[in-house]
Amino acid sequence: MDTELLSDTFVDLADTMVADFDVIDFLHMLTDRSIRLLAASAAGVVLADPRGELRVAAASSEQAELLELFQLQNDQGPCLECFRTGQPVTAADLTSPDQRWPRFAQAATQSGFRAVHALPMRLRDQVIGALNLFAAAPGPFDQADVRIGQALADVATIGLLQQRTVRRRETIAEQLQAALNSRVIIEQAKGKLAERLNIDMDRAFTMLRDYARNSNRHLTDVARDFVDGATAEFPPPTRRRPPA
Question: Among the three residues 167, 185, 217, which one is the final residue of a domain in this structure?
Fold first, then answer.
C-alpha cells in the first residue's frame, strides 16, 4: 500500500470547497485512485440522479463503464443491490454456477472480470450511489482493502453532500444533473477523438483529461470545445501544471 498516495487521496477527496469544483473529474479521480490503491483491476461509480434513478458517473476503463451500463439496463447486479440495501455486496467468483445475477456474471466474465465488490456511497441513512471494484482474478477482496475502499467512498460521499449543502438542495440537484449530462458531451468527444486518431476509447479519454489538466480547464469544457470544433489539435502540449 502506497501510504503517501493514500494520504494525498483523502486530502484530495476532502477538498471540495473550491469554487471551480468539477464533479466529473472528482469522480474519475476516485476510480483512478481506487485501482491504484486497492487490489482492483477496474472501478466504476454510479450515482442517483434527482429522480432517484442510477446513472453511470465515472469508470476507470471502457469495459468497466459498459458493465455498469449493463447492470442498469438489465436491472441486475451488485451495484444495484448495494445501492438499494446500503450495504456492501461481494461476488467472489462470477464463474460459480449459483449466481444471483447470471446475466451480469456472464457479461463480467466475458469482459475479463472474475470478482466484484460494490461499496455504498452513503452518509448515515442517505445512499447516493455505489463505488464498484472489479478484479480479474477470482477470490474475496482483502478486508483491509475493503475497509480502505469504503473509507474512500465515505469521504467522497461527504464531499458531494457538502457541496449540496453549500449550494443548497435545489441547486445541487441541477448541478448533479448537469454533471451527469456532461458525460454525454465527454462520450461524444471520446468517440470523435478515438475515430480521428484510430485509438481506443480509454486512450482518447486520457488524452482529453490530460489536455484539460495541462490547460487548467474543466474536462467538460474541453470536451464540448472539441465536439464543437473549437479544439482541433491533439495531443496536448507537454507542459503540465505543477502538482497542488
Answer: 167
Are 222 and 181 in the same domain? Answer: yes
Q: What digits encode the pLDDT tens for the residues 96-149?
A: 888 889 999 999 999 999 999 999 999 888 899 999 999 999 998 888 888 999
Higher pLDDT, 216 or 178: 216
Q: Are residues 109 and 230 in the same domain?
A: no
Write the CB contacts of 121 (distance below 8 Å, at least 6 apart in sequence).
45, 47, 127, 128, 129, 130, 131, 153, 154, 156, 157, 160
Same-domain status, 150 and 212: no
Q: How many CA atoms lie within 13 A of 129 on its CB side?
A: 28
Mean pLDDT of 160-169: 67
Q: What CATH number is given to the structural domain containing 58? A: 3.30.450.40
Alpha-carbon gap, residue 68 to 116, rounded angstroms: 12
Query: Edge-to-edge, what's the strand order for the sheet holding 54-59?
Result: 54-59, 42-48, 126-135, 115-123, 89-91
Residue 181 near residue 55 (C-beta atoms within 8 A): no
d(CA 160, CA 22): 11
- The residue range of the domain holding 242 is 169-244
**Taking the model in full, what pTM does it have?**
0.69
